[in-house]
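Bumping my old thread because nobody answered last time. Still need a sequence for this structure:
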């Protein structure tokens, strides 16, 4: 069953906080839900479908549906890390198309900054995880697993640190116009490559920010969307995939986008060269480069040339990306950037991005999410949206 045109993104809201010591996690979920409903012109009484991931406190959707005062007839708590919220949009569109719900709410919230989390800490997921005996002993952290992909891409294709730095430079050019962005200063390639080395070859400025906050989106049936007083953003294509380690037989220069992307483009009936704006998950600069290649915006191995010399800067480059500053400069709530990628794509299609970075007459946008570890197992989800 295709979701092409079966559901519209009618509400979107990004929490302005970047440090929320004074708020509970449930409160953040409630505040982003209220913001997205207000944006759509709906109330919590209109919601009959709810979608969240493991960032929801307590018993996940059971706790949050009760806390938010919702009366739903469909729920989904799929968790594929930072890509979860793009998958939720896909699943919500499927549920709406099947008549399981009419108005779907998707929320994300987290407080990693308040809790002192950083990407250099070793991460484990319990002794019962099937990979525990083989991987945890090495103290796998987020930054070093992403650095492995960067190092291999440099070896295979000659990509340079300066080319990766251009991704951060582009994000900083956009973030200077976002009053909520954590890092608003425009940086140069030299500043990126001369910043502190975190995990060779990734420097401090190759890494995303750590922030509290969250966001939410609302999807609705076409008939409901037409009654609301908001520009209509139609979901026309979606794809999902998982990439495992395959017993060690793995190419760490590819992401799951190599599978989720083509599925989304086929359903949407468009090609990469048609996309006018792209929100690309940006936990690190290398994360962006690999996904651009895997989505087909350039050939494998040519990502460095594609992003260099301002290739991603709005109004300058070939493909405007992350015009809110993205995870590299703006916001990365709960260490999961998928939600904010959807929200900025909606802003672009509505013509509501900052005027300095708004893509003129933006009709077609893509949002790409990744969750997990770049050189390890991860989920990928791709959405393609159209202004009607």
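Sorry it took so long. Here it is:
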């Amino acid at each position: 069953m295709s979701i092409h045109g079966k559901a519209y993104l009618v509400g979107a809201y990004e929490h302005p906080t970047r440090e929320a010591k004074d708020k509970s996690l449930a409160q953040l979920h409630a505040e982003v839900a209220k913001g997205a409903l207000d944006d759509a012109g709906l109330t919590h009484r209109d919601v009959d479908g709810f979608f969240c991931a493991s960032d929801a406190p307590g018993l996940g959707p059971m706790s949050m549906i009760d806390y938010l005062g919702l009366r739903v007839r469909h729920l989904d708590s799929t968790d594929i890390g930072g890509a979860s919220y793009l998958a939720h949009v896909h699943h919500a569109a499927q549920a709406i198309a099947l008549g399981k719900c009419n108005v779907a709410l998707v929320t994300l919230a987290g407080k990693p900054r308040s809790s002192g989390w950083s990407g250099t800490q070793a991460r484990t997921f319990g002794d019962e995880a099937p990979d525990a005996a083989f991987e945890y002993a090495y103290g796998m952290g987020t930054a070093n697993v992403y650095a492995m992909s960067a190092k291999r891409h440099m070896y295979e294709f000659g990509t340079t640190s300066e080319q990766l730095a251009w991704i951060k430079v582009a994000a900083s050019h956009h973030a200077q116009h976002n009053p909520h962005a954590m890092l608003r200063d425009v940086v140069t390639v030299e500043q990126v490559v001369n910043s502190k080395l975190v995990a060779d070859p990734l420097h401090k400025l190759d890494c995303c920010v750590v922030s509290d906050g969250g966001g939410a989106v609302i999807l609705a049936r076409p008939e409901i969307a037409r009654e609301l007083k908001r520009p209509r953003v139609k979901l026309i294509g979606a794809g999902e995939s998982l990439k495992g380690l395959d017993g060690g037989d793995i190419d760490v220069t590819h992401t799951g986008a190599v599978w989720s992307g083509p599925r989304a483009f086929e359903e949407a009936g468009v090609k990469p060269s048609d996309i006018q704006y792209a929100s690309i998950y940006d936990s690190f600069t290398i994360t962006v480069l690999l996904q651009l290649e895997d989505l087909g915006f350039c050939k494998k191995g040519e990502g460095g040339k594609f992003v260099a010399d301002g290739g991603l800067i709005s109004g300058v480059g070939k493909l405007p990306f992350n015009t809110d500053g993205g995870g590299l400069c703006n916001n990365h709530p709960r260490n999961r950037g998928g939600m904010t990628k959807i929200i900025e794509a909606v802003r672009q299609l509505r013509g509501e991005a900052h005027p300095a970075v708004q893509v003129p007459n933006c009709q077609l946008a893509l949002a790409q999410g990744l969750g997990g570890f770049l050189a390890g197992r991860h989920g990928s989800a791709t959405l393609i949206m159209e202004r009607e």
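The first helix runs from residue 25 to 40. Let me know if any region looks off to you.
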